[in-house]
Amino acid sequence: YYRCSWSSDSSDSVISSESGNTYYRVVLIGEHGVGKSTLASIFAEVPDSLDSEMLSENTYERTLMVDGESATLILLDMWENKSQDNWMYDHCMQVGDAYLIVYSITDRASFEKASELRIQLRRARQTEDIPIILVGNKSDLVRCREVSISEGRACAVVFDCKFIETSAAVQHNVKELFEGIVRQVRLRRDSKEK
Ligand code: GDP
Ligand code: MG
Hints:
Layout: E1 15-16, E2 22-30, H1 36-45, E3 51-56, E4 59-66, E5 69-76, H2 86-95, E6 98-104, H3 108-124, E7 132-137, H4 149-158, E8 162-165, H5 174-193
Parallel strand pairs: 2-5, 2-6, 6-7, 7-8
Antiparallel strand pairs: 1-2, 3-4, 4-5
Bound molecules: guanosine-5'-diphosphate (GDP) and magnesium ion (MG).
Guanosine-5'-diphosphate binds at residues 32-38, 80, 137-138, 140-141, 167-169.
């Protein structure tokens, strides 16, 4: 089933260890200031994780139990480092098994940027059906909201990805976000096995 298979370029990127644990590389992308690094630091510190490690600056590893099965996420927060660097941009676009496209619900420009990034990602990984979650962060800032939930949801429908609103500040839906991305990768893995 072509659309749900990984391209040959990335077929070796989902590594299964002997214990049956699986590693997924998840890349955070989005406008500056939307909360990517704050989400990453929560991910790195959640106390009930089986195992947590900071591999290097901007790279975090954590093993989660999701639906009775463990999965290790390697979270990459290096999007800010790309600046004028084409290599880093290409690297971010190619290296992910899954993506979190983050915007701030208080910043419409970051929402528009998210759409742009979705298009760029589709272009960079044309033949692949990559798991993506559109993340509307800063949901605690209700009085500064510029992007409604329904707009976020509608955008995710158009872009054929999942959607969640989070607050890294009050840690709302952050655990659900990371569990969600594990489930999205598994859905594709399972349909690939058929
Ligand atoms: P990045 O540039 O995308 O990595 O964004 P940062 O994680 O550095 O966050 C930018 C600013 O937004 C910081 O001052 C954070 O404390 C703040 N911030 C991040 N997430 C939230 C959130 O969910 N709610 C609120 N109120 N502030 C947040
Ligand atoms: Mg950052």
